Predict the structure.
Amino acid sequence: MPIYGLSDKRRLSRLGKIRLGITVQEPGKKAYPRATDYFVCPPEVQKVFGERPTALRVMFPHDDPDVIFPQFLKAYTTSGLFCAGDGRVARRWTDQGELAERECPCEMLEDGRCKRVATLNVMLPDVPGIGVYQVTTSNKSSIVALNSSFETYGRMFGGLVGVPFTLRLEPEQTQRWDEKRKAMVKTTIHTLRLDSDLTLRQIMEWRAKAGKPVEALPPAPDTEVADTHDDAPPHDEAEFAPLPERADPEAVAPAPKTNATTEAGSSPVPPPITNDAPWDVSRCYAAAAKIGVRAELYDQYLKAVYGTPGSDLSEANTRTEAAALRAVAGDETKGLLLKADMIRRLNNALKRRKP
């Protein structure tokens, strides 16, 4: 008979650790850690990627970022982990040897006894063995960069399992306070980045084989445009900016009215498309809907690119849009590429706006 709560648990073996620094021991001095500009890998990994690799080919064993990249505030003592929290609630060992909940964070974060710890679990498909290697980081730039990548690639691929990625360790300039100089000084840190070498077409083919529809990411809202200008805040202030949210349908101007019938409270029903029907703006909306661009998003696209809502679109711009949409009619791949191009043009137009 299985043991309830135990026999149903599964986990991959941990094959080893990939470190981001080394321990330096100088004569007469206490050993201290020093960050490296390369991954410090076990021997079996070095055989595949070299002695000092800055990039690793990786895959992930799970789609959930919380599983493959857990993040906590942790404090350690000589006997091991003493306290772990999520920034709201922590669990800490008491003098009686019990785990008790308490408020998080606390004074231990302020005095440096506690720090953020994020552990990335990766599979190395080119290295012998079935299991995960762990990469631990306390670098907030790495944590934000990886969380952002999981959000982006998870939507693009419809998941993360089995997708080939490249994990890189890239230099990044930042500023820190130098106590001796009593001034801010520039310094170089190395940040974890997740990349994909696949093209947009390959991503669409990947998802088609997996039976998952391609969904374009929403464009960045206007509040994100400031990051593209010279007056953008310093990196340490900007890196925790929230991810772009989906556009609020109620905050977007409605599509132009058509002669099509509608149900109470519903979106306008696009008119039927026939070969001899004129390509007016309403037909452009209908054609855009066929490639997955909703009326609200298409209207936002027209206003950003042409400077006018669809109801006021000029004849010349209508012909331009009609030609592009007519060229992809009936071709799913071309339609998806046009949809992605619309998203790109919309994002570029929004970036050109002044905050």
Q: What stands out?
A: The radius of gyration is 26 Å. Residues 216-277 have pLDDT under 50 and may be disordered.
